[in-house]
Amino acid sequence: MVKEHYSDAVNCALSEYITPAKFRTVLFEQHKQPGGITEVPVEITLSKETVKKLSFRVSGDGMLYGFARIKPLIREKFGAEAVKIYINDWEVKFIIVFELENEKEKAFYIKQEEVIELLENCCRVPQQQSLK
Known about the structure:
This protein has helices at residues 2-5, 48-51, 71-78, 112-121; strands at residues 10-11, 23-26, 40-45, 63-68, 83-89, 94-100, 105-110. By secondary structure, the chain is an alpha/beta fold. The chain is globular.
């Protein structure tokens, strides 16, 4: 079971790692392209309930892609160069997983409100402009 896999995860604030000012979304077609030299790729999976709380459209599968300008922070906190970040909606809570080089992972629980704040206030692609 996935939840047992991250049984050692602890709570943290998403803003300890990613803030709206340092995050941008990209289209599916762009997410496999390399980001900037200080960026790390991010994949976000949202439940239908969370998608309903956003002011913009999200694809039917609930997936969003982006880049966070936090590579120096990752080096400092985890001592890793290569990293990919996953933010997953487990419906009862969110988890952020840092997939580090050498197949290591660090996972933390974060709040839904923080994920919504990130997505509503980051730099989004034009296709994700507010519906309001």
